[in-house]
Amino acid sequence: MTAHAALQAGDRAPEFSLPGDGGSTLSLATAAGRKLVLYFYPKDDTSGCTMEAKDFNALRADFAAAGTEIIGVSPDSAASHDKFKKKYELGFALASDESKAMLEAYGVWVEKSMYGRKYMGVERTTFLIGPDGRIARVWSKVKVPGHAAEVLAAARAL
Questions:
Q1: What is the DSSP secondary structure assignment for residue 91, as one 8-state letter?
Q2: Which tens digit of pLDDT belongs to each residue from 107-138?
Q3: Which end of the chain offers a freer environment for a tag, N or C, measured as fewer CB atoms within 10 Å?
Q4: Which domains, from first to last, does the chain contain?
Q5: At what angle do helices 47-58 and 147-157 cross, to 10 degrees?
């Protein structure tokens, strides 16, 4: 596996086209001209990921008022996303990257370690992408509490 240089503010966001919930296709191009929050999370319906999704969902109207779309991305299947979205009544898109190509392009598919065991997984990371398709801000190794509100403040300032 090749390690990608970490994407930074000012970099052009890598293009993607992924299956979304409800049979949709999600891509960077569909958000062109608007701000986009891409948040990468490890797994549907786990405690931290559920809290993060609910936090973004609670601020959905505020993000919309700031001209900002939200897409959550994980390696789970679109069918898993459909269940997760329905269970928590999430009102934003979820993209499925089972191939991990987008996760790798954004540098969030990394070696992790738990109890001394190494494995590959998603590092919880959020990208704020400007209407010009460039990355405005990156949050790495996200701690969930207060994160969605911090991203909203940055989106409003962009």
A1: -
A2: 999 999 989 999 999 999 999 999 999 999 99
A3: N
A4: 17-157 (3.40.30.10)
A5: 40
